[in-house]
Design goal:
8 strands, 27% helix, alpha+beta, 5 helices
Length: 173
Amino acid sequence: MKKIVLLLLLLITFSSCKSSKRVVTTKSKIAKIDSRARKSASTSFNPQADKVVDYALKFDGVRYKYGGTTRKGMDCSGLIVTSFDSENISLPRTTGDLSTTGDWVDLKEVTKGDLLFFATRKNSRNVNHVGIVTEAHNGNVEFIHASTSSGVIVSNLAEKYWYFAFVQARRVL
């Protein structure tokens, strides 16, 4: 009986411990995602993915605007839809609908142009944020997205906030 009580106390203690999420985005920070993801994933060449990513990078620095799809303001799913639309690829407008489009991809196999989905709300695993992989090599994954605090920026998946918020990757190309 004592062992069961002790086990329950340990389970409650470990499940209630949670670090707070704090957004710290730096372009110069380079780190490995994990030892399993060290294999280079962006060895394949996809000119369509290059064009989509290049188009998305043109919005770098644009301010965040909910529902926005222009240089006057952009939200995360708007960036995705607009970038893929530049290559005549029609995608759903919402992050939730995007998260069921295309094929699921293991994080170790993501390549340029793949979509990364995140759950950024506290205590939730529901997808509410999306970005496009701009680089993936040697376990280092960078992606462009529209952040509510900084607008359209390039971030690294190895950053603590994004690493723990990551839910899935999908390939639509």
